[in-house]
Model the fold of this input.
Amino acid sequence: MVIGFVLFFVAGVGFGYAAPGNLKLIPFLFPIALALGAMFKDGVQGEILLRLLIALVITGVGIFLGRVLEQRFEPEETAGTA
Done:
């Protein structure tokens, strides 16, 4: 169970750092797709919804940290250089 959350975090950091623009939000689709599959198979359960909420929060934190790393480590562009 924990390894899944770690993978969502790593995906969030990776996309948050490397993906351009709104593509940074793609990792949110991973836990949603897995939760929909589980709900289709087992029905809607509180445990699935709770795990989905936790996964979305962890993914969001990963994306935020990836964006912070991107801003910190990317060279700054100045208007005077071409």
Remarks:
- The two ends are 49 Å apart (CA to CA).
